[in-house]
């Protein structure tokens, strides 16, 4: 990943009364929330984990804690790992991601939808989608090491592995997140540019730009779960597809490009929860066809990773 979000500095231990303890905790709340959100993918669930971390600190106090930042991060990470391992939590999160008109995902029961959307955008919706496909220990190891520069020796006790095994765990997660290590081939780079042009025109509701990027005989197919308002399972022709896309530009506003089954496509992911995937076929400089996948089994069967950095990013 490019860049790291560094953790807090080591603090000297000090005696603290209830008010001072609360002040010291609040100084770390933002960092803990960021860690928990990337692990859980839900702002409300992240806030639950942070609140439980505070309750544990308030019960134990900070007497004897030499590195409060590290102690808090360890506690919140273990809580997140337990939540990720919970079958009930994972079922709730999966179900929550299929509600396009909800205020948020299943975890957003107490979160500000606007704040959740902004946070998902700042983190990267595609990244949150890919993180959601990692195993619990993989996700915790990757988030702590690759996003927050936590040493493997500190992560190992959290995931209950040796530092060497933890490093392998993070490496496996990194491969899933980042996809193939080699730069995109020229044809994939070109494919991505066409997909990005389609996404930009869709977000802007720009009919003329859409007509320019769609092939005259373009075909749009969709799962039944992706259809609403009497839309057809298949439509043909650039104007028909462009006009529908303008009507549905709300979806484009929460979409990001990603590598889907080896080719650039689009993920529609409100709050970082995968709702739809657009598998796009490009011929020449235009979109020849695309399929909107909404079926949960089909979505789970897709291989999704982040697009590698390359010429298309400049």
Write up this protein:
With 314 residues, the protein is of the alpha+beta class. The chain folds into 2 domains: 18-85 and 133-178, Butyryl-CoA Dehydrogenase, subunit A, domain 3 (Up-down Bundle), CATH 1.20.140; 186-313, Nuclear Transport Factor 2, Chain: A, CATH 3.10.450. It has 14 helices and 7 strands. It has a 7-stranded mixed beta sheet, with helices on both faces. Helix 7 packs antiparallel against helix 8 (152-159) and helix 10 runs antiparallel to helix 11. The longest helix has 23 residues, at 18-40. The radius of gyration is 22 Å and the shape is elongated. The protein starts with 17 loop residues before the first helix and ends in a 9-residue tail after the last strand. Residues 25-88 form the RNA polymerase sigma-70 region domain. InterPro entries: ECF_Sigma-70_Domain (IPR052704), NTF2-like_dom_sf (IPR032710), RNA_pol_sigma-70_dom (IPR014284), RNA_pol_sigma70_r2 (IPR007627), RNA_pol_sigma_r2 (IPR013325), RNA_pol_sigma_r3/r4-like (IPR013324), WH-like_DNA-bd_sf (IPR036388). Pfam families: Sigma70_r2 (PF04542). This is Sigma-70 family RNA polymerase sigma factor.
């Amino acid at each position: 990943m490019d860049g790291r979000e560094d953790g807090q500095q080591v603090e000297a231990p000090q005696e603290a009364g209830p008010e001072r303890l609360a002040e010291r905790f609040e100084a770390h709340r933002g960092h803990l929330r960021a860690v928990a959100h990337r692990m859980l993918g839900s702002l409300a669930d992240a806030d639950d984990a942070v609140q439980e971390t505070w309750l544990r600190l308030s019960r134990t106090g900070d007497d004897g804690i030499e590195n409060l930042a590290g102690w808090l991060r360890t506690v919140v990470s273990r809580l997140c790992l337990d939540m990720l391992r919970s079958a009930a939590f994972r079922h709730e999160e999966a179900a929550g991601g299929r509600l396009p008109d909800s205020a948020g995902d299943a975890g957003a029961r107490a979160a500000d939808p606007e704040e959740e959307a902004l946070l998902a955008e700042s983190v990267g919706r595609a990244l949150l989608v890919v993180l959601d496909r990692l195993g619990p220990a993989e996700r915790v190891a990757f988030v702590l090491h690759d996003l927050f520069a936590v040493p493997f020796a500190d992560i190992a006790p959290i995931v209950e592995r040796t530092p060497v095994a933890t490093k392998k765990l993070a490496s496996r997660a990194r491969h899933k997140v980042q996809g193939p290590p080699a730069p995109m081939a020229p044809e994939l780079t070109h494919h991505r540019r066409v997909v990005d042009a389609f996404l930009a025109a869709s977000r802007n509701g720009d009919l003329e730009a859409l007509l320019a990027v769609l092939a005259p005989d373009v075909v749009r197919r969709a799962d039944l779960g992706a259809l609403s308002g009497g839309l057809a399972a298949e439509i043909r022709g650039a104007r028909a597809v462009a006009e529908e896309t303008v009507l549905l530009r709300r979806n484009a506003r929460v979409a990001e490009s990603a590598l889907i089954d080896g080719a650039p496509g689009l993920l529609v992911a409100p709050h970082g929860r995968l709702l739809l995937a657009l598998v796009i076929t490009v011929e020449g400089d235009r979109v020849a066809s695309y399929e909107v996948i909404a079926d949960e089994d089909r979505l789970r069967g897709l291989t999704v990773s982040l697009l590698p950095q390359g010429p298309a990013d400049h």
